[in-house]
Amino acid sequence: MSLLHRLVESRLPSFDGATGWLNSAPLATEDLRGKVVLVDFWTYTCINWLRTLGYIRAWADTYAGQGLVVVGVHTPEFPFERDLDNVRQAVKDMAVEYPVALDSDYAIWRAFSNRYWPALYIADAEGRIRHHQFGEGGYEQCERVVQQLLRGAGRDGGGDNLVSVADYGFEAQADWTTLQTPETYLGYEQAHNFADGEPDRLELNQWALSGDWTVEPGASVLNAADGRIRFRFHARDVHLVLRTRETAVPFRVLVDGEPPGDAHGLDVDEQGRGTLVEPRLYQLIRQPGSIDDRTFEIAFDAPGVEAYAFTFG
Questions:
Q1: pTM for the predicted model, two decimal places
Q2: What is the 3-state secondary structure (H, E, C) of 57-107?
């Protein structure tokens, strides 16, 4: 049975608003004529997008020879994600090899009337958008749509098999059965659940600052050494978007007042030690055992830290 219950959603907009391209010369509408096109809106610190990346990468590898073109549209959420060098480094580190349109002015975002990271749009060989997926999930349906559109364009679609992806690192799927803590921003424009006064007495999903901080519109900024952030959470994973105005800032992570041990994330060791260098998402906790309410703490040894948002998994 066909998965394409919507005949046509809209026409595929052009990418003329891109401020630059990585991995490709600029792609014009005529370059895509006769191709099935999968457009992936992303921003490199977004954990929700990172958990889809294995599938996007696998589809690009598997179906390129069949006539699929994957275009990643990098639309920045945080100011430092507008920096070309930062995006270029992220593309390299994350093994993104398909074309990436830089959408620093949100022109492509507006052309698609998009509102989400991640968001997928799949267009047929005639340039008609036939399917979309907002947020994580829907992987099998998206791949079946790609196969069906390729067959409709006269290709064999690669058969009926589905890709398999590795489930590790940032790309591991969230533990949805235990996740009870939402994404939380640390700038006053979007902040919620801030506990002002008693940082050691946090209710679930509350967070607090200790030390000399300035809460700016988009981030909490540390003004002096020995600043701390505490968060009462219920999740397997703890991530934090960080940037430093210094060269590098050492930090230390604790869970319920103790080093994380085997619950440490990719960016800390068993003693909870890590170093903030690149502006990006840091994985600080990945618990291997039972999940309960826990208190997370991160302490920074130097000023200049900008903390943007916690995400969980």
A1: 0.93
A2: HHHHHHHHHHCEEEEEEECCCCHHHHCHHHHHHHHHHCCCCCCEEECCCCH
